[in-house]
Specification:
The protein is about 40% helix and about 20% strand. Strands 3, 4, 5, 6, 7, 8, 9, 10 and 11 form a nine-stranded mixed beta sheet that branches. A hairpin with a 2-residue loop joins strand 1 and strand 2. About 25% of the residues are buried.
């Protein structure tokens, strides 16, 4: 037998990782204790032990609960992939020949369909034994479909997920930008203000009401100005109207990026900073293993980057 050398001897064990992941998901030691079937003092001691082993603080203790530190975020990201890989290894050892697991997937926002199908093709090699299908017909109401059992996994932005019987995790963000013609009066601005948005026509797709509410809250806070929205059915139509100087398109970076290299469109941010939209993955507990594998693959496959000027 070839000499493979001494195996690594990490300081953390799987129990440490499970405690940290439970705390990151739950936000409090009390809720994590319920998930782990432990007492709250036992969870607190386990967290302190993990931090002591690493010599690093993993959570900041705040009045609103536990918040991951940069070290904690790094550990949670790596721990998820590590446990998924370990689970895959155990599964292959236990059942060398297994029937494929079929997962029905839907996205709450149509923008994800601009990259998800090609991403699924790239992920096939890293997701052996999983058969993924898109249930596009449930895009407008992913959570009712999840509850009814019509889908197994949903990528969501604004929808609320019931706690009983379901899991959810944040996986990535995209940036919502303001796209306009280079000849538009606002194109010379370094950044846009809220007053700028009040004075122009905003071009969007057929966004769900919850998405519009999220936009208004993030941009205007408690203020509720009457904005001029024009909804168009196709992305190409939105960009063509923006290119003609007839409004400002409000689009995800995923859609906008391929169209910004032609020289006739520019992307702008708000003066208050990038408008980032958090994406979450939600799934039925019956597909825990498959959903975690999909999540780990999506974290490294979703597109990134937007040229904003």
């Amino acid at each position: 037998m070839a000499d493979i050398g001494a195996p690594p001897n990490p300081r953390l064990d799987i129990r440490d990782l499970r405690v940290v992941l439970a705390l990151a998901s739950a936000g409090t030691t009390a809720q994590a204790a319920t998930v782990l079937h432990l007492t709250q003092p036992a969870v607190s001691r386990a967290l302190l032990a993990a931090e002591d082993k690493l010599g690093a603080r993993l959570f900041d203790r705040t009045p609103r609960g536990l918040v991951l530190t940069p070290a904690g975020e790094q550990l949670v990201s790596g721990a998820t992939r590590l446990l998924v890989e370990l689970g895959d290894l155990e599964h292959r050892v236990r059942t060398p020949v297994a029937l494929p697991v079929r997962i029905r997937l839907v996205c709450e926002c149509y923008t994800a369909y601009h990259w998800l199908p090609s991403a699924l093709v790239k992920m096939r090699a890293s997701l052996p034994g999983l058969e993924l299908s898109l249930a596009v017909e449930h895009t407008q109401e992913p959570i009712p479909a999840l509850v009814a059992g019509d889908i197994d996994v949903a990528l969501i932005t604004t929808a609320s997920v019931p706690h009983a019987g379901f899991q959810e995790r944040e996986i990535f963000t995209d940036e919502v930008a303001f796209i306009m013609s280079t000849s538009h009066p606002l194109a010379s601005r370094k950044a846009l203000t809220r007053d700028d948005l009040k004075e122009t026509t905003l071009l969007t797709g057929r966004t769900p009401p919850a998405e519009t509410q999220w936009f208004m809250k993030r941009v205007f806070g408690r203020e509720r100005p009457r904005l001029r929205f024009e909804q168009l059915p196709l992305t190409e139509a939105i960009l063509d109207v923006a290119r003609a100087g007839m409004g400002v398109a409000v689009l995800s970076e995923w859609i906008a990026s391929p169209h910004l290299g032609r020289g006739d469109l520019v992307a702008k941010r708000l003066a208050s900073g990038p408008l980032r939209r958090p994406w979450r993955i939600a799934w039925r507990r019956e597909v825990d293993d498959a959903a975690l594998r999909l999540m780990a693959a999506l974290e490294t496959t979703a597109p990134r980057g937007l040229a904003v000027g």
